[in-house]
Amino acid sequence: MKYLLIMLMAMMPFAAAEPNGSSSPAIIPAPVEQVNSSMNMAQRRVREAAVKISTGGGGHGSGSYIVYKDAHLIFTAQHVTDGPIGSKYHVYKDNEMRLATLVWSDADADMAVLHVSEKFVTISPMKWSPQNRTAQVGTKITYSGYPSSHQLMTFAGNVAGYADRARAGKHIILNTYGWFGCSGSVIYTLSGDIVGILYGVDVEYYPDIQVQENMIWVAPIQRIKIDSVMNRICRGLPEGTMRACR
User: Fold this and answer.
1) What is the DSSP code string of 7-58?
2) Neighbours of 124 (CB within 10 A)
3) All domains of the chain, ordered by start, with CATH?
4) What is the rounded distance in angstroms from the CA atom of residue 113 to the CA atom of residue 169?
5) Chain centroid to CA 95: how far?
6) pTM strictly above 0.70
7) Tell me, what's the pLDDT at 147?
8) pLDDT tens digits for 110-139?
């Protein structure tokens, strides 16, 4: 680990000495993100709706910005937002930040939903479009998240199989990439339907021999009942405040 940190430090930019007589440093424009035309519209929208969630202490997880009627929500993993219901979390996308409230969580399935009272301005959310049934083996998927210290990255893969978890039932195993920081990423089909929420990476019991980074655990989206989520949000609100509460 120490060698990795040394390498990262060596890659940090250093400020060049300013020439005599210069009134201000040169402004270097931020690079424009280039997206290959082979990425379809749903994949682009998934990438745009991906957000980073601060867990405090410098840690983070990932999530997806999703709209249900006029309710603006963040879907993520429970271990990313593991405080009590009502806890506040900072949610980021590029230079925009919103404060979101934890309104629903399921520790057994490792899923959580936060409510954003003030919607994002610079990004568009995905629509609430869950699959009716657990995704079939071979289903092609896409997701975008923030692994480790990297900026936003987009991944592809497919449903490889299933595994049972105590008290949580059948969960989905993907063949794709996942790492620290990707927890909470929402998995979508290539048509934009929600498959589930990423929460874990299958690691070999003997890490000095092998580490599996392509066996990714996903909680099926069917575990989340949107009516239960909305009941938590609408409780106590004045009548007519939100269309989603009617």
Assistant:
1) HHHHHS--PPPPPTT--SPPPPPPPPPP--TTS-HHHHHHHHHEEEEEEETT
2) 12
3) 41-128+225-237 (2.40.10.10), 140-222 (2.40.10.10)
4) 20
5) 17
6) yes
7) 93
8) 999 999 999 999 999 999 999 999 999 999
